[in-house]
Structure formats: structure tokens, C-alpha cells
Amino acid sequence: MIALALATAVVLVVLIGPLLLGIAGWRHVRAAPSAVAPPAWDWTRVIVSALIYTLAFNLTFFVQELFLVLPKALTPGLQPTLFHNNHRWNGDNPLAGLFQGTGALATALVGLACLWAVRHLPPRSVKSRLFGIWMAYCGLLMALPQVVIGALSTGSDVGMAMEYLHLAATTKAAAALLALAAMPLVALRLVRPLLETAREPLQIGDPVARTRFVV
């Protein structure tokens, strides 16, 4: 029953919610089309953003793998291997299960720090702002889905940590629902910093232009 409820929530957040938002925006555009011609695509900005995203994703992945292994490496009786495909380790210690969740925790903390920075600190440049945005995006949206997976799979990284903490099924489900609710909130909190990277007001002059710029 809990698995069905979580699956329904995932569909609502990942598919139905964005679809309804897109339909609402499309209807708004048809009702009040823009009288201003949209500016040409800024392909240089698109390519730079894509490269920065690639860097942010790989850095976030490295942080997760490093902090998945580092606590075990400092724990007596455990000998982990960095970047092992199955996250295996040699030796035994009761804390090993708990430390399976430290990778996701580290990426979430990095994401939160970057989200705060792009919301509150003045940007030094457009590239630094894009780097902060993509680090926040990757850090949080790489960690939050793992909470949902952990609630459904005891063999996943976060699932092992939940098992160590002896969380009840209802507690896991509540954590998963909170993680799902946080995902669109993270995305919405990144919209304003992203729009602030526009080169000229025309690029974000109306809802159509803003949607086009974000895409």
C-alpha cells in the first residue's frame, strides 16, 4: 500500500505536475500572445551552460562517491574502495550501513550551500552564477530521489542507512513524500537566479520569453 502511494506521488511530481504546468502556460500564451518578436537563441550561452552542467554533475558525483567511502575508510574494520560499481567494501562494522547514506547527505549539503549562495550572494560573473545554479541543481536533485528509492529498496545506499536507523515503513514513506515535495520547490527557487543571467531584458520580457530562456 505504501509502495503504491509513493509510486502515485512520483507520477504526480515527475509527470502530471510538469504536464499541467506546461498546459497552463500554453493556454496563457494562446490567450495573450506576445507582440514582441523573441530574440535569437544565444547558442554561446547554451553551450557554456551545458559544459558547466557537465562539470557540476561530475563534481557532484565525485562528492557523493568520496563521502560514501571516506567515513568507512576512517572506521576500524572497514576497507572500502573508491568508485567501486557496487559500493562494496571489505571487513565488517555495524556503522557500515549508516555510512551508505553519507554520500547522498554530502551532495545534499553541497546543493543547499550553492542554492543559498545563488539566492543571496551577488554573482561575480554569469559563468560563476551558472556554476552555482547547476551545483545546487545536481546536488539536491541527485540526493532527494535517493530518499524515495531508499524508502522502497533496503538494498540501496540510503535504504541501508534507513535500515540501520530502524525507521518504520511509515517514517520512510513520510521522508520520501517530503523529498518528492522538495523537488519542485528546489526547481522554483532556481528560476530567479537563472533568469538573472539574461544578457538583455528582451530575453525575459514576458512569460513566453522567460520560458524560452529557461529552456
Automatic annotation (TrEMBL):
List the transmembrane segments: 6-26, 46-70, 98-118, 130-153, 173-191
The keyword Membrane appears for this protein? yes
**Assigned keywords, A-Z:** Membrane, Transmembrane, Transmembrane helix
Question: What protein is this chain from?
Answer: Uncharacterized protein
User: What organism, scientifically named, is this protein from?
Assistant: Lysobacter stagni
